[in-house]
Amino acid sequence: MTADEFAALCVPASCTLHDALARLNDTGRGVLLVLHPDGRLRRTLTDGDLRRAALAHVRDTERIEALPEHPPITIGTDATMPAGLAVLDRHQIDHLPIVDADGRAVDVMFRRELSQRIWLSSPHLGEEETAFVEDAFRTNWIAPLGPHVDGFERDLASYAGVGHAAAVSSGTAAIHLALLLLGVERGDTVFCSSLTFVGSCNPILYCGAQPVFIDSEPQTWNMSPSALERAFAWAKQEGRMPRCVVVVNLYGQSADMDAILPICQRYGVPVLEDAAESLGALYKGRASGSFGRIGVFSFNGNKIITTSGGGMLVADDEALVQRARKLATQAREPAAHYEHVEVGFNYRMSNVLAGIGRGQLKVLEQRVAQRRQVFETYRKELAGHTQLHWMPEPAGDRSTRWLTCFTLDGPHASVKRDLVLRYLERHSIEARPVWKPMHQQPLFRGAPYFAHEGGDLSGSLFDAGICLPSGSNMTDEQQARVIEQLRRALALAEDTRAAA
Where are the beta strands (DSSP E) in 216-322? Predict the structure, then answer.
């Protein structure tokens, strides 16, 4: 609902019943908001109210103020969607006005809208997957091995331009295995991007190691080379050189590998490239995930392609990948019986899920194009909002725009961010803040953190950043709805009274 559409729902109590009926017909929302002269909500007016007035022989030339008083059922601006839905259900109504602290109507929650939720990044399945899954059932290859696992590994390795791949149960499992393969042990230090999902660094704790977090830089929102340099200088002085560096490619955008890799090579420390969010991205023509000693991808349900749950570890070193497969299957030794000499894990992907992955991989380029088009539509339609700044894409790179992200500027950015998120949620649109940096998480309290020059950039991105619905299966109508609601939310956010 645009600002003009909302304004059309608002009428004074001096409006006649005839004019109110005409307005109801024109707006088609089934409700009008009757306001006091100072903008406070006096009551709502529905088709039912007008029918009851007609049955009571009230002439249509009478004013709304002549009707019996009917205090409105409302909810405050800080209320959540579940709370609003509970009020709708309790009173058996289909629309719920939102009022500010002064009782002024600022929005309306509609039941019909709540039933048509727009997700941040929903799975997008097609027809290719069905044939592979049916083959797995027909041949009875259901276990966590089989021809589709082998095929998915080959297909993914070929796409990413690496020699070998191991399909596992999740991206987090792949990171855990990668850390073990790189020799991370209890008491070791591991450098990791701070602006990321916790799955990037929880495995550091699995190994008993200690994370050191590195800030982002503004060109990519990914690991800051200058902060990384200072972290290495500190580590050398403290005798805490890292066993590896986990470089995260955020929201479908590759980190600046030309700057990061030489730093790590100079200190002789391998890179674990966390490409969980960036499958399909290109850095200067080369596939994301192919730069580190080991790369990791995720196929969680919200990723650009999905196996419902799953991940992949990739490397050019065949011995590393073979060892990953062994560790992922309980570290079983090659014996006729079950022989074990080291700790292993139940991390392998099933043949059924790998079949889904093979089908999804066939449409990956199409999914990338669709998500990039989603971003371009947002960028074009919201070009007039100067307080909004999109996540950058360096020249020569191809971001997948897995999620379309932006930041808000101004002194009250975090307040505005929360207002926008609450507004979208009230209209059943899923949006999220940018990741809360790991150095701000209670789990990692006390972990060393190296900020980008000029300050804590990842903290600033979290304070001001929003991720919009970006699914490749989002319809034009759904995106138009997000854009219109976002426009209104941004307008409210810019209202100094609302942002104060």
Answer: 244-248, 271-274, 282-283, 286-287, 294-298, 311-315
